[in-house]
């Protein structure tokens, strides 16, 4: 199929892009990599009157790690995957990005584009929840910093205003005691995950002092397993009984969807197992490869 007719604009500044979004409102769509937008346009699931191509805006393809992490709007997933600075500062990006589609998709797809698309089964939104990230949105009213917990509002839905553009994502530098892992289960490599788990755990003296566990594929948006993290804090993360309790707590609050790929009950069971494995992988320093 082919998309419906649309106009095209290639602004050379954030201000120009925001003005176009304000003018066209919901009839405009931003395109960076286009790996999610173009397929749904071809299926006529999205029919924008205007495509706002932000690829000509300078300075949006940078990854900064000095004092904190900032990933610009045009940073390709493949560039993030190859960034030594990013992977040193936040190692969870390594395994998480390898799960994103295939190499060709990551070459064009952007980190921020995945967040703006807000697919509940995607890897990067869950990673941002686990890292306590903040999404930077720029609109006619200026820059707005939106915590990841408030950014994802539902299936393919965010809290962005119609005139707002994601211009970056900011992540606090994980502490020296932080350990992380990302795991997911899919029918085939490159498919969207049935369940994905991003875990960031801080350990001192053999005891967990802080934890954030995020899941994808189990709701209409990525979710934090807050009760599971609460149980984990103050415990020995190598204790099998503790991991069992944490996994059960993560699954207990879920009501996953049922579809042709698996039942909600099956997804909840997978979530319990993956949470246990992700925490164990983080503690063992296996970078999500367990």
Describe the fold and architecture.
Helices cover 35% and strands 24% of the residues. The protein has helices at 14-24, 37-42, 77-82, 84-89, 93-98, 103-108, 111-117, 123-131, 148-151, 226-232, 240-252, 264-284; strands at 7-9, 28-31, 50-53, 63-64, 69-72, 134-139, 142-147, 152-154, 157-158, 165-171, 178-185, 195-204, 207-216, 223-224. It is built from 12 helices and 14 strands. The protein has 3 domains: 7-53, Uridine Diphospho-n-acetylenolpyruvylglucosamine Reductase, domain 2 (2-Layer Sandwich); 63-171, Uridine Diphospho-n-acetylenolpyruvylglucosamine Reductase, domain 3 (2-Layer Sandwich), CATH 3.30.465.10; 180-284, Enolase-like, domain 1 (2-Layer Sandwich). The protein starts with 6 loop residues before the first strand and ends in a 6-residue tail after the last helix. It is globular and about 60 Å long. Strand 13 and strand 14 (223-224) form a beta hairpin. It has 290 residues and is α+β, with helices and mostly antiparallel strands. The mean pLDDT is 95. Strands 4-5-10-6-7 form a 5-stranded antiparallel beta sheet. It has a 4-stranded antiparallel beta sheet with strand order 11-12-13-14, sandwiched between helices. Strands 1-3-2 form a 3-stranded parallel beta sheet, with helices on one face.
């Amino acid at each position: 199929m082919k998309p419906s007719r649309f106009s095209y604009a290639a602004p050379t500044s954030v201000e120009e892009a925001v003005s176009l979004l304000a003018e066209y409102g919901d009839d405009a769509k931003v395109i960076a990599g286009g790996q999610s937008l173009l397929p749904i346009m071809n299926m006529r699931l999205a029919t924008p009157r205007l495509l706002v191509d932000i690829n000509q805006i300078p300075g949006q393809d940078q990854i900064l790690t000095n004092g904190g992490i900032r990933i610009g709007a045009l940073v390709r997933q493949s560039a993030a995957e190859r960034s030594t600075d990013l992977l040193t500062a936040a190692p969870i990006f390594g395994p998480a990005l390898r799960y994103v589609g295939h190499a060709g998709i990551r070459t064009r797809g952007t980190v921020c584009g995945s967040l703006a698309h807000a697919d509940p089964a995607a890897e990067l939104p869950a990673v941002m929840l686990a890292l306590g990230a903040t999404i930077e949105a720029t609109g006619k009213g200026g820059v707005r910093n939106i915590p990841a917990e408030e950014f994802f509002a539902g299936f393919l839905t965010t809290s962005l205003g119609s005139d707002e553009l994601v211009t970056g994502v900011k992540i606090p530098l994980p502490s020296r005691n932080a350990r992380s892992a990302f795991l997911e289960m899919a029918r085939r490599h490159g498919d969207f995950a049935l369940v994905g788990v991003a875990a960031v755990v801080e350990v001192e003296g053999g005891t967990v002092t802080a934890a954030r566990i995020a899941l994808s594929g189990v709701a209409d948006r990525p979710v934090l397993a807050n009760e599971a993290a609460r149980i984990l804090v103050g415990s020995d993360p190598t204790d099998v009984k503790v991991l069992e309790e944490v996994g059960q707590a993560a699954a207990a609050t879920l009501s996953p969807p049922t579809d042709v790929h698996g039942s909600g009950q099956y997804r909840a069971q997978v979530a319990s197992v993956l949470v246990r494995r992700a925490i164990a992988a983080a503690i063992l320093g296996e970078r999500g490869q367990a």
